[in-house]
Input
Amino acid sequence: MKKLSKKQKLIILISIITIIVIIGIIIGANIIRTNIANGNYNSSNGSSNNGNLLPEYIKKGITLGGVTGTLESLDTSDATATPADIAYGKTAYVNGVKITGTYEEKVPDLTSSNTTFSQEINYWTNQNVTVNVSTTILGYTLQLATGDPNVESNWHNASSQLMMQNGTIYARLTNGRKSGGYTSYTVSNIDKVLPELRYNTGITIGRNPGDKTINLSAAIKDDDSGIAKVIFYYKSEINSSYYTHEIDIAQINGENEGSKSYNSGNIYLNLTNNEYNGHILYGYWEAYDVAGNKCTSYLASITPDGQSSYTPQ
Output
C-alpha cells in the first residue's frame, strides 16, 4: 500500500476535526432548543437579554431568561353560558369564543301605588289642563302617551302632559331598550262645548196685562259639565238698558256637575205701568255651564196686542 504523504495526512485530519465540530454544533443547538422549549434554560451569567420578557407572556412554571412564567391556558370548551345569561354589554369567552351579554333585568311596571298623577286644574274648566306625573321608582326614564299605548310611536319622554280635551294618559318606565308595564289616568273635567238651545229658540215670551209682568221661559241642555247659571234680560222698548234676573243652579268652575237639562217654566218679571202699557217688550237669556261656557237664546219680543217674534242673536 502506498504511504500517504504528510500533506495528505494533514488534510484528512483537518477534515475529520471539521466534521466533529459541525456535529457538535448541531447537537448543542438541538439541546439548547429543547431546553428552551421545556423552560430548562437559565442564563447564569446574566448575559441573556430578558428585558422584554414578562411573566404573563411565559407559560406558568417555565423559566426563560431568568423570568418565571405565570401564563395559564384556560380551557373554556365545557362552558354553557349564552349571551342571554350574561349582563348586557359584558363580555366572556365560551368554548374559545368571545360573546357579549344581552341579559337585562325586567324594567319595573308602573302601578297606581307607585305612580302619582296631579292635575293643575281639578275643577270643571273650558281651558287646557296640565297633568304632572311622578313615580317612586328611580333609575329609569319616564314616558307618557295619550294615544293607543300599544303603538310604540305614541310614547315620548316626559313628566307632564298638556290635555286639550278629556282623555287618558298612560305612563311607563324604560331603560332605552326595554319598557315596563304601564298605568293610566283619565282627565274628565274639560268642557269646551257651549250649552245648547232646546225647542229651536230656547225661549218663549208672554205678557200679563193684569199684573203688568212679562213672562219668559228658558229651555237649555248641556251634556258635559251641566247648566250652572241662567240670567234673564228684559225691558220695555222705552228702556235704554235691560233689567236682569239671575237663577243660580251650580257653581261655575266647581267640581260638581250642574243640571244636564234645564226648563225654567214661566218666569214672571215686573215692569211699571208706564213701561208695560202700549209698548213692545223684549227678553232673552244667557246660560253658563259649570265649565264657564256661555250660550244665548233668541231675542224674543211681544207687541202690546200679544204678537210675539224671535230673532237669532
About this structure: Confidence is low (pLDDT under 50) at residues 41-49. Residues 58 and 69 are 4 Å apart (CA to CA). DSSP finds two helices and 22 strands in the chain.
